[in-house]
């Protein structure tokens, strides 16, 4: 492992917050994601509102789908526009059937999907020098352009802080140095969990 990778891993361990959601709450949300996708092929209704107060709070969330370890779709809400359980159901279904990068998930594929959820905190203004790799996701906006990258992207790509800022600008369709030249910079944290890392 390179020194950069070691430093990024160490930073992630230092900055990882205590889990907000219990094991049961995580399992409920993952089940909702799967059932939302499967319900598109059946007459089964979506799961009812869960009892946990945390799961009915409005939160941003991204749902990422994998098939045989390959990305199969990812859709999310950066803003808290719906109760969390409903946002999970809606983004899971959208990731399966509306991600323009992929063909819609088939009935045969649906039971094989692995789900990963990234539940977002509320956005907050941040200075570039305060961005922590592995802890913060970023939103860069300027005019009609807006781009978002999740916290784990910087870790997976072995990016340092400036590269992460540059790439978030690129995601927004802006020059990579827009974060230095007037673009709005906001951050969020994310609690990430999924099928592949159970038990949690």
Trace the largest sheet across and list its strands.
Answer: 2-1-3-8
What is the helix/strand order? HHEEHEEEEHHEE
Estimate percent helicity.
25-40%
Classify the fold: give the CATH topology of the largest domain: Glycoprotein, Type 4 Pilin
General form: globular
Q: Tell me the name of the CATH class of the largest domain.
A: Alpha Beta
For CATH, the homologous superfamily of the largest domain is named as Hypothetical protein ph0010, domain 1
Provide a concise account of the structure shown:
The chain is an alpha+beta fold and 200 residues long. It has helices at residues 3-15, 23-38, 84-97, 151-156, 161-171; strands spanning 60-67, 70-77, 114-120, 124-125, 137-142, 145-149, 184-188, 190-194.
What are the main properties of this structure?
single chain; 200 residues; alpha+beta; Glycoprotein, Type 4 Pilin; Dna Ligase, domain 1; four-stranded antiparallel beta sheet; 5 helices
Could you explain how this protein is built, in words?
The protein is globular. The protein has two domains: 3-121 and 190-197, Hypothetical protein ph0010, domain 1 (Glycoprotein, Type 4 Pilin), CATH 3.30.700.20; 124-188, Hypothetical protein ph0010, domain 2 (Dna Ligase, domain 1). The chain is built from five helices and eight strands; from the N terminus they run ααββαββββααββ. It is an alpha+beta fold. The model is unreliable at 1-10 (pLDDT under 50). The relative contact order is 0.17. A hairpin with a 2-residue loop joins β5 (137-142) and β6 (145-149). It has helices at residues 3-15, 23-38, 84-97, 151-156, 161-171; strands at residues 60-67, 70-77, 114-120, 124-125, 137-142, 145-149, 184-188, 190-194. A four-stranded antiparallel beta sheet has the order 2-1-3-8, with helices on one face. The chain starts with a helix and ends in a 6-residue tail after the last strand.
């Amino acid at each position: 492992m390179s020194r950069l990778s070691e430093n990024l891993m160490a930073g992630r361990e230092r900055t990882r917050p205590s889990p907000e959601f219990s094991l049961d709450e995580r399992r409920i949300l993952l089940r909702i994601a799967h059932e939302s996708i499967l319900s598109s092929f059946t007459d089964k209704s979506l799961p009812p509102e869960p009892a946990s107060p945390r799961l009915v709070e409005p939160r941003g969330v991204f749902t990422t789908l994998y098939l045989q370890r390959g990305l199969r779709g990812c859709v999310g809400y950066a803003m808290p526009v719906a109760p969390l359980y409903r946002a999970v159901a809606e983004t899971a279904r959208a990731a399966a059937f509306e991600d323009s990068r992929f063909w819609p998930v088939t009935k045969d594929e649906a039971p094989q999907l692995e789900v990963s959820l990234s539940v977002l905190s509320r956005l907050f203004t941040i200075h570039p020098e305060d961005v922590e790799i592995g802890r913060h996701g970023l939103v860069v906006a300027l005019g009609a352009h807006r781009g978002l990258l999740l916290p784990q992207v910087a870790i997976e790509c072995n990016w340092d802080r400036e590269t992460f800022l540059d790439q978030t600008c690129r995601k927004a369709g802006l020059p990579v140095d827009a974060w230095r030249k007037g673009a709005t910079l906001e951050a969020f944290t994310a609690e990430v969990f999924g099928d592949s890392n159970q038990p949690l």
